[in-house]
Amino acid sequence: MATTTLSETEIATSKPQSTKYVYFFGDGKADGNGKMKDELGGKGAGLAEMTNAGLPVPPGFTIQTEASREFMRHGQVSTEVDTQMDEALNRLEQLQRQKLGKGDNPLLVSVRSGAKFSMPGMMDTILNLGLNDESVAALAKLSNNLRFAYDSYRRLIQMFGNVVLEIPKSAFDEVFDAKKKQKKAKLDTDLDAKALKEVISEYKKVVKKHTKRDFPQDSNEQLVMARDAVFRSWNNDRAKHYRRINNISDELGTAVNVQAMVFGNLGETSGTGVGFTRNPATGNKEFYGEFLMNAQGEDVVAGIRTPIPIRELEKIMPEVYRRLHQITTRLEKHYRDMQDFEFTIQDGKLYMLQTRNGKRTGRAAVRVAIQMVEEGLITKEEAIFRVEPNQLYDFLVPRLDEKEIKPENILTDKGLPASPGAAVGQIVFTADDAVEKAGHGAKKNPVILVRAETTPEDIHGMEVAAGILTSRGGMTSHAAVVTRGMGKCCVAGAGEVQVNEHVREMRVKGQTFKEGDWISLDGTTGRVIKGKLKTVEASPDDPELTKILGWAEPFRKIGVRANADIPRDAIQARAFGAEGIGLCRTEHMFFAEDRIPHMQAMIMARDEKERRMALKKLLPMQRSDFEGLFRAMDGLPVTIRLLDPPLHEFLPKREELMVEIAILPHTDAKQKKSMVEKYARFGAKSAADLKKILPQVLSRVEELHEFNPMLGHRGCRLGITYPEITEMQARAIFEAAVAVEKEGVKAHVEVMIPLTATLKEMANQAGIVRRVAGEVFEEKGREVHYLVGTMIELPRAALIADEIAKEAEFFSFGTNDLTQTTFGFSRDDINKVLPTYLAEGILKQDPFAVLDREGVGELVRIGIERGRKTRPHLEVGICGEHGGEPSSVEFCHQVGMDYVACSPFRVLTARLAAAQAAASEKLKVEGGRTK
Ligand code: ADP
Ligand code: MG
Ligand code: MG
Fold first, then answer.
1. What is the distance in A from the centroid of ligand 2 to the CA of 120?
2. Residue 831 pLDDT exceeds 50
3. Strand ranges in 380-538 using DSSP code E only, listed in sequence order
4. According to the model, what pLDDT value does residue 928 have?
5. How far is ligand 2, taken at its centre, from the CA of residue 342, in Å?
């Protein structure tokens, strides 16, 4: 940093001596409570609350988040934190009648991170802290179990070495695996005390080698180092990345929980497990979870041993099971939400180690919310906020038939839900096999491509596969990103699955699967299930969904329209509840195979006459599309944007043409034939024509070439320079409107002029539209009501909105282009800088995904205000990608828009987001959703 003096904010936030940094919990009471998530983090608040409720929680203390923020600022905590921590440790030692790492009965603790919002797996926990060469012997004697003591110690060195001393995990794994090999041990548990003792001494060498010092034997030193490592881990890359994608502030910091250890690995009357009070995949009210006997901490989730379904605990330890069920039911009632909990059984005694509101799928969220209303646990108004709008996507993709899923057939439920939906198919292990086995046409077989991870070379296989399963990689791995783009089901990073591509084999839970075996994937929950399961189609009319929307929607103030270009999409959007079309991009009607030639002919035209000829061919096609849209929306508004795109999108690439001209003399008959086909739309009838036509096309492409087409000859500039285009489109619109009205369908027409920046542009285009409307109505002897408005997508338009509103009867904010032109970021190239911008914290979010309220949003606000100064009832909407993104929808509600428009698949999300925005305003609740 450039300056060494304290900044004003630092002075202002530097705390007086009296700050309470450390909160004790134990013996039935806690200094803190469940509401103090800001200070204690989610985990610490939960531990305090459970302690206060008299539940069996191992005692300990929480160092609050303020210490973490201090650590961020100064690279260390103040002495006051140390003092308070020492006091708390003293108190803990007295309560337990033990000393940390000392004596015959040494106190051992876990050091656990815990921020306000749960950040699963982001910051690592250290168990068994306090063990050293002396206390390990005491522990062995005390437990009468040498193996247990050594196992605990080697785990500490490993975790401490990795998390605190930042030694790569692999350094320890190598030692451990070598030992297993040497002793011919299959499982970790096959290593005996002697072997573990050897592991410990080799682990110590690893520590010495990497850090040039010995593994710390002083337990208090271990504790301080571990605490600071947790604070440091707040800023590790994984944590930063998680916060970014979940929109969690970097400023919050984390708490540290220090808690007396309980041991699930003391023998066959001990164990550890995790669970949910309801099924997080389906929302069904059932006790759900799993455990392992004789195991510690992460063993259950690490996938080394196969855990047992929680119901089995009833048989093994009925009393413990009953107590656990009773406690967690009570916790659910207390928190009034589904709980996700962790427990450990030590020598037959149950301890609770964590509870929090459980994450769940969209379907489960809806079901749990409804059932909790029925049970009288929450109100309908609260239920509205229990579902994340984005999660409603779950209702729009197919899913596995839950009735067919038998627990014993679940191969893993710990894969990442990388891309939602379901896929059922036969296993293949390479992209080429996928292509071969999937077949095509009538002989199509569903295949699941199973890989350790995917790379760009696998694309062809991914394209034909019904679903993808990978054993490595996260939510942003290649497989995850690509499949989400394809809208294809994917389970990624399923660590329990071992894939051997060479021998074409997949192993999981001791079973081996070969090419051709059937498996089923659930990309919504991350489950992989053996066998050929039935799938259930998407269900936007699901009765439970309808019910919860029925509670939410009466609050909603703004309309939700869809962006739909063709009748098929419009019909779908209406089924999802769209109340109109907010954006029909007329150029998209021309991407179809049979139409693009006419569009190209229109673009290639050298003069008005040629252009009119091409337009004449386009007219009937547009008209029939518009008729289809009007019929689909019968009476609901249909906003049609006149031709907007940079024309080059419709033409062959300049470079490609140059290459083809160069190679033409060297091509064989077959290649020539395919080139003739390709250029038929430009008039090529035989190979002989190519020599003449290719250069012609090239020269036209070069004439049309623009250095910056996104800011070029597009939008209303097109209709102003070539008024015949606007005329044709207006004619198609009004002829279609009159035609459907004659059939008794109601057409609600809104004609939208794109990319205006001046009143005169608007007046020019509106003039043509109104003139043609008059002509058509005259010819057909029938009038149709319509509006002419504009898309606001340039800063200038927003600033002079009062002028533009003189001619424009409605505004629709095109926030994709408005973001592009406000930031000066190219939409298509932003990914070169965005990752760095996000990593550096220069931008918090991708402004093309989440509306930038401060800048772009301010222009929107100004545009609405000025527009309505001229025209008080000006209709205002949004039609960018933001129209289906919950936080942006909330903004649109707040600035008083009449509607948002989004793609059909986001209509449900937008409806709920708009309802939540209005409800939270009315009910004065802070968007109390489950994080
Ligand atoms: P995470 O946030 O990754 O869940 P936790 O702090 O909850 O991390 O702990 C990781 C594992 O260690 C969990 O299984 C937890 O139950 C276990 N654990 C944490 N503290 C203790 C303790 N004091 N005694 C026994 N097990 C513990
Ligand atoms: Mg945990
Ligand atoms: Mg635009």
1. 8
2. yes
3. 399-400, 410-412, 416-419, 422-428, 447-451, 467-470, 489-492, 498-500, 505-508, 511-514, 518-522, 527-530, 535-536
4. 42
5. 6
Q: Return the ligand 1 atom nearest residue 353 CA.
A: 16
166 sits in the region (left: phi over 0; alpha: psi -120 to 50; else beta) called left
Proximal ligand: closest to the CA of 92: 1
Task: State the pLDDT at residue 14.
Answer: 52
The C-alpha atoms of residue 703 and residue 706 are separated, in whole angstroms, by 8
CA 336–ligand 2 middle distance (angstroms)? 20
Using one digit for the tens of pLDDT, what is the confidence trace for 355-370? 999 989 899 999 999 9
Q: Is 489 a catalytic residue?
A: no
- Chain segment 297-331, per-residue pLDDT in tens: 766 655 556 778 899 999 999 999 999 999 999 99
Residue 167, ligand 1, Cβ within 6 A: no
Mention every residue, 6+ apart, whose C-beta is less than 8 A from residue 266: 143, 145, 148, 294, 346, 347
Among 151, 257, 342, which residue has the most ligand 1 atoms within 8 Å of its CB, making it the best to mutate? 342
Q: pTM score, two decimals?
A: 0.84
> Is the CB of residue 262 below 6 angstroms from any atom belonging to ligand 1?
yes
Q: Which residue type does 12 have?
A: A
Question: Which residue reads 């033990």 in tokens?
Answer: 98
Q: Determine contact, residues 151/128, Cβ cutoff 8 Å.
A: no
Residues flanking ion ligand 3, Cβ below 5 Å: 793, 814, 817
**Whether 478 is catalytic:** yes
Nearest ligand (C-alpha, residue 644): 3
Q: How confident is the model at residue 697 (pLDDT cuts 50, 70, 90)?
A: confident
Instruction: Indicate whether 921 pLDDT > 70.
Output: yes
Q: Which ligand approaches the C-alpha of residue 124 most closely?
A: 1
* Of 489, 879, 892, 902, catalytic: 879
Burial class (CB in 10 A: 0-12, 13-18, 19+), 9: exposed
pLDDT band at 16 (very low <50, low <70, confident <90, very high): low
Q: How far apart are CA 290 and CA 684, in angstroms?
A: 68
Nearest CA among 797, 846, 840 for reference residue 821 = 797
Produce one character per residue of 136-161: b if its CB has 16 or more CB atoms within 10 Å, e if not.
Answer: bbbbbeebebbbbbbbbbbbbbbbbb
pLDDT at 618 over 50: yes
Q: Which atom of ligand 1 is nearest to the CA of 342?
A: 16
| Closest ligand 1 atom to Cα of 112 | 6
How sure is the predictor about 674, in pLDDT bands with cuts at 50, 70 and 90? confident
Which ligand has the shortest distance to the CA of 356?
Answer: 2
Top pLDDT among 394 and 813 is at: 813
CA of 44 to the centre of ligand 1 (A): 12
Distance 696 CA to ligand 2 centre (A): 68
Categorise residue 645: left if φ over 0, alpha if ψ from -120 to 50, beta otherwise.
Answer: beta
| pLDDT tens track for 73-96 | 999 999 999 999 999 999 999 999
Residue located via tokens 């629709």: 812
C-beta of 118 in contact with ligand 1 (< 6 A): no
Q: What local confidence, expressed as pLDDT, does residue 847 receive?
A: 94
Residues with CB under 5 A from ligand 2 (ion): 354
SS (H, E, C) 725-792: HHHHHHHHHHHHHHHHHHCCCCCEEEEEECCCCCHHHHHHHHHHHHHHHHHHHHHHCCCCCEEEEEEE
Mutate to test the pocket of ligand 1, among 25, 63, 110 (most ligand atoms within 8 A of CB): 110
C-beta 125 within 6 A of ligand 1: yes
pLDDT of residue 680: 80
Average pLDDT of the chain? 91
pLDDT for the residue numbered 301: 57
